[in-house]
Every structure is written in C-alpha cells, then in structure tokens.
Amino acid sequence: MEPTRRPATTLLSQGTVLEDRYEILRICGRGGMSTVYVARDLRFHHVERLCAIKEMFVSAPDDRTRTLRIANFEQEAAMLATLSHQAIPKIFDFFADGGLVYLVLEFIEGENLESVIENASGPFDEATLTNWALQILEVLAYLHDHQPEPIVFRDLKPSNIILRPDGKLSLIDFGIARTFQPLQKGTMIGTEGYAPPEQYRGIAEPRGDLYALGATLHHLASKADPRSETPFTFDQRPVQESNPAISDDFAEILSRSLAYSAPDRFPTAHAMIQALRQLQHQEGPRPDDHQPPASHLDLNSGNSEAEPNGSRQFDREQETTHRHPGTTMFEKVETTHRVEPEHDIPLPDGTLPVRERIVWSIHTGDEVRGSAIIANRRAFIGSYDGNVYAINHSDGSIAWRFQCQRGVASRPVILQDALFIGSEDQKMYAIKVSSGRLNWSFRAAMAIRSSGAVYGDRLIFGSDDGYCYCVNAADGQLQWRQRTWGPVRSSPSVFQDSIVVGSDDGALYRIAADDGRVVWRSQLGDRILSSPAVEGGVIVVGNADCSIYGLSFETGKVLWKVRTQRPVLASPRVLGGVAYIGSSDGAVYAVAVEDGTEIWRSQIANQVTSSVSIYSGYGYVGTIDGDVQCLNLRDGNTVWRYRIGGPITSTPAIGDGIVIVGSLDRQIYGLRL
Predict the structure, then answer these.
(1) What is the CA radius of gyration of the chain?
(2) What is the pLDDT of residues 630-656, one digit of tens each?
(3) Is 591 in contact with 598 (CB distance < 8 Å)?
(4) Which of 92, 150, 401, 599 is most buried per CB count within 10 Å?
(5) CA proximity to 624, closest of 590, 664, 659
(6) Residues of the chain with CATH 3.30.200.20
C-alpha cells in the first residue's frame, strides 16, 4: 500500500527519525515549498554528527507526474552529489517518503547574510564586499565550468549565503539549481528582486547568477532590499547614493553585473573576478611569484600586435623607491650585454652559438610578452615589470624608461612625437617619444592588452571591459566607444573609413571610425585574439576554433575557412595577396587571401603565437620553444633559427640589420639579421 502523504504544512517534530538514521533536532529554516531541519546522524554513536535535512514537497496533479518529478529530483540530486568545493555543502543522501523528497547535506555553522544585513548598523564597506564577492564568484565559476553541462544556481540571494565563524562564505540551498542548456525555457523560478529579467521568462543561464550576485552586493552595500523595490530599477538607485564610500570602479563593476540584458553583463564569473582583482591591485598590489607554464601559453595569452602577448595577472609587488608613473629616473639599472658580432658558425642543427647571433641583450624585471616598434633608430617595447623601454637599437643602450602601474603586454603605436601604449593598469598612455614624459592618460574600466591603431588624429583600441574606444590623440578625450560582448584583446585594423576588430565573444566587428557605429558583426566559431589584416576587400583573421577565416570587408560574410590543428592566436601578415600566420599547432601557414588556398605549411615548433614579421622576402617569427626563425616566404623553409633563453610570444621587429624580440626569460634581445 502506498505510504500516507504528509501535508507540506505539517512540520516534523523534534525526535522524529527518518530512514531509521536521521533524528530531527530543530527547524533551521522554512521557505514556500521546503523546510530545512538540523538532524543528528544516529550511525555515529560516539560523536554528534550534525547534518541538514531539506524537505521538499512534490506537487503534481497525478501519480504519474509525481513519480516523474521524483525521478528528476533524484537525478538532479545525484548530479549535485558529485560536486566538490569547500564553499558548497556536501550532499550525503537523498530519498523520497510519503510524497515528499529529502536532501541530507553537510551542516554549515554560521549566519546567513540576510540576518547579517538585518543586524548591521549600516551598509558594508567596499573591502568586505569585494572579499565576499570574490568568494561567491569562485563558487559560481566552479558551477558554471561544470562538465558536461554548466550548473546555474538560479536563486542567489543573501539568505542562501552562510557566513561561517571563520569568515568564509558557503552557498546553500541547491534545490532549484539546474544544468544549463542554451535556449531552453522553463518555469520562472527564483526570488523577485534578485532574479534577472530573463529568468522571469523561464530562461536560466550562467550570467543570470552574476545578476543575482550584483543584486545581493547592492543590498549589502546600500541596505536597500530589492524585494521591496520595483524590479530592474538598480540604475535608478545608484549604490553611491546610499553609500558614498563606494568607489566609482566598484560601482561600475556592480552596474555591469546588473545590466538588464544578459550580453551587457560580464561574460563569465572569471571576467568579473578579474575586474574585482584588478580593483584590489589598484588599492594595493599583492606579491605573486607564480609563472605561467610555457606549455599553456596558448590558453593564457592575450593579444596585441605582438599576437598574442599574454594576459597573465601582473600581481608582483612593485618597487616604489624612486619609481613613479611617468618618471624616467630609476635607481635600478638594467643589465645591457654587448657582444661584438663574429662570423656565423652554424651548429649541425642550423642554430648559431649565443655569442654569434646576439648583438645585445637587456634584462628587465619580468616577462616580455609585448612586441617592439622601431622609429628614429630606437626600439620601443613594454615589459611585465611595468616599464616601457626606449632602446637605441644599434647598441642596446636605454634612452629612457616610462613606468606604468602594472604590466605592459601591448605593442606601441607612434604618431608624430607621441607614443601610445596600453597597460594592465587599465590606462592608455600617450608618452613623448623624444623624452619619455607623459602627455596624457586615458582610463578604461579594465586592462588594456589591445594595441592601438591611428585613424587621422584619433587613436582606437580595445579593452578587457568589452569596449572599443576612440580618443583624440592630442589630449585623450573620448570621441566614442562601442561595446562588444567580451574582452577586446584583438588589435583594431584601419581600412578605408572603418576599423575591424575581434572580441572574446567570438565575433568580428566592422565599426565606422568616425562615429563608432557597428557596420556589421560576424559571429565566428570561438574567441578572437588575432588582429585582422585586410587586403583587396578580404579580411583575414585567426580564431581559437582552430581556423583561419577570410571574410568580405563589405558584408562580413565568411568567404573561406582554413582548418588548423590547434587554436590560431597569432595575427596574419599580408603581402602580395598571401597571408602568413602561425598557429598553436606549431605551423606557419601561407594562404591565398582571395580564396584561402593553402600555398604552403611549415611545421617549425610546438606552438607559434608570435606573428610573422616580413622583411626583404623573408619572414621572422618567434616560437614557444624559444626559437627565433627566419623563413623563406617562397616555400616556408627555415633559413636560420636561433634559440634564446625562454619562450617567445613577442613578434620580432626589424631595423638596420637588427632583429629585436622579447622573451619570457625577462630579456629583450637584439639579434643579427
């Protein structure tokens, strides 16, 4: 006989034992369709092992539907039981009994944030909010990265976050968490005021959790309960009105997470983590001695004209004695090593001894991922030590240095006597070429790893905040900005009256250079770190989906596609109707711009993320193996190769018989051509 169904309104009394194992001690919390009890696990006789038991009522018009829902619950509970994260309670058991279903979970001691807000005398400070936000985002990132399907929490709010006695946070109540299937609609579920707009239409996706986190942070920062306000009106209630101590940067991060449209929010939890950590570094950088392994450079790279130049966090503590942004006087002096050129003596494998190829080398304070530009017999290049170096390229002597507040991974661009370069400190700098003095700086919302492009008297560049910016080159005043839906690490290319640029959202954009209007947007297979090249009305660009694309400049239509073995992060170089581009599969490809015909493919390394520099019929490229290689552009054969001290993501620059390239061994090299 079927067990008697207990009404959902009837609570379990103290001392009730479920499954001959769990003794109910007290009620912990109640919701509309569930009750949470604190219970003792009776199988542990010698210790009091507490657990939380969540009891949920399964409503259905008939027994068949009820049985199906219980089966779905058991499947979901089994999935959740596979989760392993310190901020997620472990699931020990699940069962159904009398028309109700039960989850047995790890008991988390502490107080939920809703009670914390009620007991607080005022809003919380920014440092506390940032700390809590990062903790929750780490959990969300873990859930959203779950395989084979992301898990969307769907009901993030203060009452579902526990502040433990040790100050750590835990996320509780996974009763409505679900795996994310794109475009799948369901019943609206969540909590009004915290749930994002699309969830009201039955659509649950990872960016909805970021909205709910933003609403939670807004509640903590302002003490204004969103459940008592008109939904989706956070923009009408700026957090700084209630809490003036909140910085503009934090307010902007909060505003982006609360955008009405999901594509306007941070694309991932990882992106929001990055924004908050960068904000922390502005307030006080933290030491971090971790180096990215060379074998993963293709995954951790950003992009500029040095494609890709690297996007690792520059977390090392900066030297402050006699080092200030914009100054050129330093007590620390880099080592410049001068070697007189001698006769080339090839080794059996075609390499040359160190002293035969190196003309000079400069030791910097950190990795050199960006590329150099040569002008006025000087090479200009940035380093992750935060410096931009002006080097006399004939002998390696340093003319001046300019220090940014964080690492530099982009390539400089020069207009008259102004050098423009972006930094991970979120600023684009205009520096006087002759002296290294600061003309102006423009600040974006996140790191700038995209290199600039000059259009008339304007400078155009991208940022990790998802925008493409256009500023006046003379004074840095903003002319326009255009949003994409992901970080812009691709560098814009100017062609006719437009710029073409890629985004981490996987799209290539053609934007009118005069007013920032999007002419067209073409969605490709994956993120675009490569900077496009345009010739004969055809755009060539690499893609992380292991392809090289050719698109129509007029329409954005894909004309052809060449498959590679691994992601293409480097940028194409075009000459005479042929595009030369490296791939993470270690090959350099020569393809016809018109139709994508593969002319040759040269396997030269394990990975190639450097772009090819073309000079006098030869191509020069760096490899992750640490080689600088000279290729004959007719057939792709290696003319010479030379191994330096570390992996190379920098693109070689060439002038007056010298090849200048940076390396992850923290050095800038001048090599004989």
Answers:
(1) 29
(2) 999 999 999 999 998 889 999 999 988
(3) yes
(4) 401
(5) 664
(6) 17-106
Please return the burial class of 1, using the count of CB atoms within 10 Å of its CB with bins 0-12, 13-18 and 19+.
Answer: exposed
How far, in Å, are 21, 55, 264, 286, 632 from residue 2 at the CA level? Answer: 21, 19, 51, 62, 81
CB 154 within 8 A of CB 206: no
pTM, 2 dp: 0.54
The enclosing H or E element of 103 equals: strand 100-106
The three-point CA angle 130-85-193 to 5° equals 50
Per-residue model confidence as pLDDT tens digits over 376-418: 889 999 999 999 999 998 889 999 999 999 999 999 999 989 9
The residue that leads in pLDDT, 308 or 670, is 670
Q: Looking at the domain covering 17-106, what would its CATH class be?
A: alpha beta
User: What CA–CA distance (Å, rounded) separates 109 from 419?
Assistant: 57
Please answer whether residues 371 and 653 qualify as being in contact, where contact means their C-beta atoms are separated by less than 8 angstroms: yes
Quickly list H helices, 51-205: 63-80, 113-119, 126-144
Task: For residues 603 and 585, give the distance between their C-alpha atoms in angstroms, rounded to a whole number.
Answer: 8
Candidates 3.40.50.1820, 3.10.350.10, 1.10.510.10, 2.40.70.10; CATH matching 111-283? 1.10.510.10
| Residues in Cβ contact with 658 at an 8 Å cutoff, skipping those fewer than 6 apart | 359, 393, 394, 670, 671, 672, 673
> What are the φ and ψ backbone dihedral angles of 359, each rounded to 5 degrees?
-90, -45
Which tens digit of pLDDT belongs to each residue from 518-541?
999 999 988 899 999 999 899 999
Q: Which residues pair with 38 in a beta bridge?
A: 26, 52
Encoding tokens for residue 83? 């989760």
Q: Please, are residues 536 and 553 in contact by the beta-carbon 8 Å criterion?
A: no
Rounded to whole angstroms, what are the CA distances from 548 to 367, 454, 624?
28, 25, 20
